[in-house]
Amino acid sequence: MTDDRDASVSTADGFPTGSGGHDPEVLRQRALDALLTARARTATLTDSVDDGELTAQHSPLMSPLVWDLAHIGNQEEQWLLRAVGGREALRPEIDGLYDAFEHPRAARPSLPLLAPAEARTYASDVRGRALDILEGAPLHEGGRPLERAGFAFGMIAQHEQQHDETMLITHQLRTGPVALTAPAPPAPTDAATLPAEVLVPGGPFTMGTSAEPWALDNERPAHRREVAAFHLDTAPVTCGAYRRFIEDGGYTDPRWWAPEGWDMVREHDLAAPLFWYRDAGQWLRRRFGVTEPVPDDEPVLHVSWYEADAYARWAGRRLPSEAEWEKAARHDPATGRSLRYPWGDTDPTPEQANLGQRHLRPARAGAYPAGRAPSGAGQLIGDVWEWTSSDFLPYPGFVAFPYREYSDVFFGPGHKVLRGGSFAVDQVACRGTFRNWDLPVRRQIFSGFRTARDA
Questions:
Q1: Is 182-455 CATH 3.90.1580.10?
Q2: pTM of whole model > 0.85?
Q3: Domain boundaries, the chain
Q4: Residue 104 has pLDDT above 60, yes or no
């Protein structure tokens, strides 16, 4: 996940062009709103449990929550106070403790971390100074690269929201009393009449962006891609569909699995998505401390790339490539344009996508008709991260900014691309161009998928 793609401040001159035309005061307000929204969510995630839960490691795959809390403050100090504001370091002695590359997650509980109260005070002190800097920062086009269009402030808001998603994963992994609650997402209104798949015509489209002011380096630059015609699932694959794969012996038949995936199945004795278990002939799941029947009409969640790929093979289909996914999500054949989001260029509303931890689960397949793309595919933004068939690679003309460790060091065949975001993602860190990536074995993330076939 993106939360460990951090680095100490370094100089860079690779800020992408195309951020002009944005009103500095509008961007300043947008940055303020994004920072405040992220901090409110951080508070929800950390105030909902006691200090013992904050300092515990609930899984070796994850950091203690208190590490994330102080790390959020430390990254904000490094980039907004020091790099943008030119301020003297508040706590330079802790930089190493909260360097994600220096300390793997499994080792972080043994570090001399800030205690919960001290971590909260530190993050609050940094935030107060950062807002002072935002108030006076020149965000015009001719400004310094980090300040231009408020990029550094948007980057830090995205970084905090990415850690909030990671902390929500930790909440899902922890055991004990329920700490978080949320209402159910809206039910679909026309799911019964939706086609199973849509046809996406072949031809060129513009992939990536050179104009989105807060787009991160791996989303850039915009470039033309040619995509052959293909069919794509209208909605993500559901739990009910995935259950049929299980009941047909999907986890016991090596025909469907990549060799590494089959090794994973046998080594860990996998038989279902993470958090599923069978009791008295019924499939149940644990979701944020609640045990409940697996809902057949909800997108399947907590599956690895290998599981998604195996299901697609079993179904006689395949995972879409990253370019296919983005064309289905963004291309408007009526105008030839690539949209910011499937529904257009406006920011998401609660009627268009399930984002921001508003609900603690995906919406049922077919929900959010107002969020459907011109292709006819729905739920492309929010609900579940969607695995694609593609390795995480740079776009033509890629320039690392503001540091190599965000994207560049992860490029290659070891990581697979996920697109679209999940219910755990905030809109500031989710766009039609946003690229996530992870190891193909990862299951604790809020990942699902949809399938495709050649036309």
A1: yes
A2: yes
A3: 2-173, 182-455
A4: yes
